Amino acid sequence: MIPKPFAYIVLSALLIAHGQAATVGGTVLLTEQGIRNLGLQTVTVEEADFEATVFALGRTEAVPESRSVLSSRISGRVVESRLAIGASVSKDEKLVLIESRQPGNPSPTIWLTAPADGTVVSVATRLGAPVEPTDRLAEFADLTTLYLVATLPQAVAGRLAVGTRARVHFPVHPDQEYIATLLEPVAASGLTAAALGQGVGSGTEARDGTDLNTTGVVFTLRNPDTALRPGMSAECSIITESRKGVLSVPAAAIQGGPSNRHVYVKHPTIANAFDRVSVQTGLTSNGRVEILDGLVPGDEVVTRGSYSLGFAGSGGGPSLKEALDAAHGHEHNEDGSEKSPHAHAGGASTGEHDHDHDHDHHHDSHGIGLRELFFMASTGILAVLLVVTSLRRRSSGSADEPF
Fold this sequence. Notes:
This protein has 403 residues and is an alpha+beta fold.
């Protein structure tokens, strides 16, 4: 009687030999309707630059050296104001008219002018308001360059070098990407405390709530159209490593657990067929995964619908015979092998012999066929069974012999 483990091996070999290779081997065959139902989308694998990044939240700040304020040298009240938040002003431009408290008819007036070129970022006065020399009536800043203060764990910030770049996105401008350059590994004390490390979840906080395990790093950000303003929140992808000529695929294409990563690759010759291919993955960054082994440039991998392909081969699609018939333009057996010359109805003998010759050449170029593989597997299994049976008989005979 054949032991159960060997029976399972024999059954597997029989299933492979009788047309189940598409399922066992990981090839999924679908109809065109099935592809539409799954909404499959593919991308072509190419070599490109690959960036390893660290995510951080940031906040824009005006460069301290670019700030200026508007004040008055005399006491009085505002009788005219041309201030508007967000407006651009030029140096010496008239902005606020002050009426002096000194007696006179009419009372003396003086225009307060812009101290420098810039943008009005705050206004602290209004028409008719009293004015003292100590008052800050308005604040200006040159916004063509901003500081971006990003919050990072101290261990990560310590590894960054001056000149490190970051890709920055703002919720108010979701479709635009900005490039920032690291100026200081640690935030300057002149920047507002609100932009510094407000970490979450470290469990180590100062009395003011600041996370002591994080720090702010300062980037410079070009803003030529002044579309950005101080105090805007940003999402930063800080580039810690950059390499050229790296194969990578969208993260949505990767399926399986850490020990069996795989993707589905569009079959090069069989229509509506997708091969399950095991891959070795590397770094993950910006929604892409580095591929170390398993794919080559030009492969078409499934992105959208990749997860569903793992359940799509259970039925409803064409058989292996139908797929090969459509791909090669002639009939095959149910197990995918070529039909013999006598099996072709009405075919010319010369043409069929030529076909067999061509197929044999094609078959040889792809290695051992399914039937040959089946016979080889069967022979090996029988040999193992004979050895096991012989050993069992010898062991049983030895146990019966007297000492």
